[in-house]
Amino acid sequence: MNIPDNATPDTILLRGEKIEVYSCELPHLQLEFYPENPRIYSAIREDDNDNPSQDDIFRALAKAEHVRDTLVPSIKHNGGLIEPILVRGKVVLEGNSRLAAYRLLSQSEPEKWKFIRATVLP
């Protein structure tokens, strides 16, 4: 994924080391869920799916109570994310539930929820 022109250089502390990152907004439809994420792994395992597609992951997370009943209303109320998702390449390493919530919100208001706040790792 290309870093947008409006990205802001930043740093995060990871395992005691400062890592240069970028803060920006990314089009959520270009991002991918991280299948090895423990929350995703457990949700998909409930359906006995050993090789989930991106759509399988979205459907599983979209059914999750914490996404529907907590994240979607919170994101909508705040007008976006309080904490950005963490992305490497096109894969969301942290924030897969928030990505699912954005996709649910964008079903009724695609332009309003087109971009998601992200921290991009090198």
Question: How is this structure best described in words?
Answer:
This protein has 122 residues and is α/β, with parallel strands linked by helices. It has helices at 38-45, 54-63, 65-78, 96-108, and strands spanning 8-14, 17-27, 32-33, 85-88, 91-94, 115-121. The protein has a six-stranded mixed sheet. A hairpin with a 2-residue loop joins strand 1 (8-14) and strand 2 (17-27). The mean pLDDT is 91.
Features:
4 helices; single chain; six-stranded mixed beta sheet; 122 residues; 37% helix; alpha/beta
| Overall pLDDT | 91
* SSE pattern, N- to C-terminal: EEEHHHEEHE
Instruction: Using the alpha-carbon principal axes, give the shape.
Output: globular
- Radius of gyration, taken over Cα atoms and rounded to an integer in Å: 14 Å
The first-to-last residue Cα distance is 10 Å
Portion of residues in beta strands equals 25-35%
Secondary structural class = alpha/beta
Largest sheet: 6 strands, mixed
Q: Regions with pLDDT < 50 over 5+ consecutive residues?
A: none
Q: Helix amount, in percent?
A: 25-40%
Strand order of the largest sheet: 1-2-6-4-5-3
Enumerate how many helices there are, as a single number: 4
β-strand number: 6
Quick structural gist:
This protein is of the alpha/beta class and 122 residues long. The chain has 4 helices and 6 strands, in the order βββαααββαβ. Helix 3 (65-78) crosses helix 4 (96-108).
